[in-house]
Amino acid sequence: MKIAISFICGVVICFMILYGVKPVLPAFAETTEPVDESENVTQSLTGLLPDIEKIYREALTAPFIAAESKIYDEDIAGFYRTLMEKTGLTDPNSN
Prior knowledge:
Order of helices and strands: HHHH
Helix content: 55-70%
Number of strands: 0
Shape: rod-shaped
Largest sheet: none
């Protein structure tokens, strides 16, 4: 008998808590016509992102450009320079 009364009291207390919390929580969606602000949001967020392609290109070409300065033989340096130009690794800002 004590268990049944405790269970019923617990259920009543839980319903009272849920009923008391309901006005505090926003349960209804906005019914007004939403303004399309996606374009403004997209433009403002893309301004915050770094240029990933430029960073990748710089990271790719920097070791090759640094290695070029360590070549002292003129024939090998000329070949290396030609190879770098053909592969497009001489200018990190080019595509």
